[in-house]
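Work Package 3 (structural annotation) set out to generate three-dimensional models for the target panel prioritized at the project kickoff. During this period the team completed the workflow that converts sequence records into discrete structure tokens, so that structures can be stored uniformly alongside our sequence database. As a representative example, we reproduce one entry of 319 residues exactly as it appears in the project archive.
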Amino acid sequence: MASPGQRPLKVGLVLPQVEDDLAGHSPRWTHLLAVAQRAEAIGFDSIWLIDHMIYQFPFDDDTQPPHGLWECWSLLAALAAATERVELGTLVACTNFRNPALLAKTADTIDEISGGRLILGLGAGYHAFEFQAFGYPTDHLVGRFEEALAIICPLLREGQVDFSGQYYRAEQCELRPRGPRPGGPPVLFGGTGKRMLELTARYADSWNVWGRNNLETIRALQGEVDDACAATGRDPATLERTAAVMVDLPGFAGAPVAPWVLNLRSRREPAVTGSTEELAGTLRQLANDGIGHVQLWIEPNTVAGVEAFAPALDLLDRG
């Protein structure tokens, strides 16, 4: 628990990258930069990007039109140079989209640009439509993820690896020069399946649950994380817990929300909403439940939205 006057958990902001995210308009780089810099000035702790190329939502409905996104790592490099204090994270980067040794090299380089502010979120991916559209194999996604980790984690933490597997190879590979942190950036995994949780317990510094806005759901999933840690002999207290939560801001009732966001909410839980006091209270409760870092998808995801959330941050800081 934090002392009075101390923020009890880190609060991050997920930037809008999806086509038509902004009331039917696609976010431009100038918009993303303005939102990120305003969030940093107001006091958010981190900025986050998702890693998709193109998708149909719902994911199991091929009658829906596809939605494109700006590429994650290109934006991260630009944000690393355009911000000064906030941490920068991927929520989460798909290891099956990129050669794992190159992904480690890219992460270490962006950590250098940012002065040691990167959080490397990793996942296996799941959406067959975008895998097929961009020519990536769709078989054995978790098996490929596990092999990628056997390359990425040693490279970032030790600077070298010698690995030959079924899907990937990195023979006598080294990261040279190294970024600003000898052990590389912290690694966060997203996923709730049994095998993914086992890999999280074995390799990750942090675990993330995405789009679960109900506190009871998040608590239940944390119990499964505890079980995975116990099964691998890891102390559950050594694994940070994070949650990506959708928030409807007060004062913007009736404002347009992207159709894919509405659809996601209808399939999971409604967005968190309420007064400034209630929003700060929800964040405090997440902290009390063991969440160390929250990544907020706010509506509207604009400079005005960021400014409207500032009073909740102030209340949270005052305890």
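The mean pLDDT is 93.
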